[in-house]
Amino acid sequence: MELHTAKLGPGHPFKESVNGPARNSMAFEFRRSAGCLLVCLLAAFFTPKAHAAADKKGQVEILIAREQVDDPYFHHSVVVMLPEDTTDLVVGLIINKPTRLTLGKLFPDSPELKARTEPAYFGGPVDVSTPSVVFRSQKEPDNAVRLYGDVYLTFDSDQISGAFQTTKAGSGARLFLGRAQWSPGQLENEIRLGGWYRIKAEGDLIFSSEPDKLWRTLHDRAAPSKYIRYRPPSGNSQQSSRKATVM
User: Fold this and answer.
1) What is the 3-state secondary structure (H, E, C) of the chain?
2) What is the pTM of this model?
């Protein structure tokens, strides 16, 4: 399996790399997306353990890259993590990086998608020719993974157009290209080294109407304050509190 870890690097290259022939090639690959990798992923996610993990309170997390992460793919990224499964994969989707590709351009032959103008999102550097869709559903759909609440994810190519058939533009379905993927222990090590903040996945974060502002909003929410309030022990003549810098 291909892996990618957060590391130092230049700016994000994806928006400039999906034009012209590359776009046509990707559209062709989307029509062949029911490959072995998807079968393996779906088989893993639909085990009893996978469903149990998805149902645990707080199991699904959103990761926010800290300011110092300058990797070309993960710089200023917000990543929703998939529920734990029985494989060794640690998988997530970057949710705050829209591309210049619209659904209509990617699926010009699809009656359901050819007129859609919403952007596809860069989900991560692994298998960028493989699409997935995050959508809402009042009942559990087939071949989909429950992330939290009524939010589901599918890699099933037959489900992609169906997810958009039942939703209006901008009302709760998003297509992602590729995914983020770590080896066992790799992500936890990055977190220990200070690469990521973690918050509970909930609400409409995945479907934010301002994805370009999502990283800053969540980073400021998750980051500890630069100052803590310090009060002298009782009996100290100083009555006012002091500010102490948190290193």
Assistant:
1) CCCCCCCCCCCCCHHHCCCCHHHHHHHHHHCCCCCHHHHHHHHHHCCHHHHHHHHCCCCCEEEEECCCCCCCCCCCCEEEECCCCCCCCEEEEECCCEEEEEHHHHCCCCCCCCCCCCEEEECCCEEEEEEEEEEECCCCCCCCEEEECCEEEECCHHHHHHHHHCCCCCCCEEEEEEEEEECCCHHHHHHHCCCEEEEECCCCHHHCCCHHHHHHHHHHHHCCCCEEEECCCCCCCCCCCEEEECC
2) 0.71
